[in-house]
């Protein structure tokens, strides 16, 4: 099931989906035919939701922001230096080089 205007859509379970558009996170319910309800979660609301889960479930939720990596750059964990995340090209990445060599 899909919401026509969102990117990066993912099914969470129980008829609930998540997607994003223009940096905003959207939750929506889908009954198999159409979107029933939807809500946009601003960053502050997401933070409050995490605090709620921590409080009622005894969880510790740690959120770190990763940079968005341009499509011609490597953002894999093979680039082990977080300071330079996304700075090397795929051809420079040792992990991607090893994967290419295995396929050959």
Describe the structure.
With 104 residues, the protein is α+β, with helices and mostly antiparallel strands. The protein folds into 2 domains: 7-57, no CATH class; 64-104, no CATH class. It has 2 helices and 4 strands, in the order ββββαα. The protein has helices spanning 43-57, 94-103, and strands at residues 7-13, 16-21, 24-30, 35-41. It has a 4-stranded antiparallel beta sheet. A hairpin with a 2-residue loop joins strand 1 (7-13) and strand 2. The radius of gyration is 18 Å and the shape is extended. The N and C termini lie far apart (38 Å).
Shape: extended
* Percentage of β-strand residues: 25-35%
Helices, by number, come to 2
> Radius of gyration, rounded?
18 Å
- Extended strand count: 4
Order of helices and strands: EEEEHH
Helical/strand content category: alpha+beta
Strand adjacency order, main sheet = 1-2-3-4
* Main β sheet profile: 4 strands, antiparallel
Unreliable stretches:
none
**Residue-averaged pLDDT:** 77
Approximately how much helix is present in the residues? 10-25%
Counting structural domains, the number is: 2
Termini Cα gap: 38 Å
């Amino acid at each position: 099931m899909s919401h026509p205007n969102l990117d990066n859509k993912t099914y969470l379970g129980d008829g609930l989906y998540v997607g994003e558009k223009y940096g905003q996170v959207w939750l929506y319910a889908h009954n198999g035919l159409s979107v029933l309800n939807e809500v946009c979660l601003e960053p502050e609301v997401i933070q409050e939701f995490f605090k709620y889960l921590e409080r009622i479930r005894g969880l510790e939720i740690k959120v770190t922001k990763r940079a968005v990596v341009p499509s011609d750059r490597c953002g894999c964990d093979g680039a082990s230096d977080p300071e330079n995340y996304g700075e090397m090209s795929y051809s420079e990445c040792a992990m991607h080089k090893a994967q290419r060599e295995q396929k050959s």
